[in-house]
Amino acid sequence: MDYRFNAIFEKGEKYYIGYCLEIPEANGQGETLEECKKNLIEAIKLILEDRKEGILKYLDKDVIREEILV
Q: Which of 24, 31, 34, 62 has the fewest CB atoms within 10 Å, i.e. is most exposed?
């Protein structure tokens, strides 16, 4: 997977909180900026994989499935 996403990070009193502009439901938090980034990346990956699995289970078996690089 080779995507680029835009992330916004805010520093709270105790934690950093990160959001993804392209996937609003993806967010992460951490005590450090690096931990927050790592958690946000993991959230993005989990959401994309869940979306893919959700769509695939409803497709006919004879569809053409091909991976493309974006």
A: 62
Q: State the distance between the two ends of the chain, measured CA to CA, in whole angstroms.
A: 8
pLDDT by residue (tens digit) across 14-67? Answer: 999 999 999 999 999 999 999 999 999 999 999 999 999 999 989 998 999 898
What is the chain's length?
70
Query: Both tokens of residue 49?
Result: 């994989």
Task: State the Cα–Cα distance between residues 61 and 34, nearest whole angstrom.
Answer: 42
28: burial class by Cβ within 10 Å (0-12, 13-18, 19+)? buried
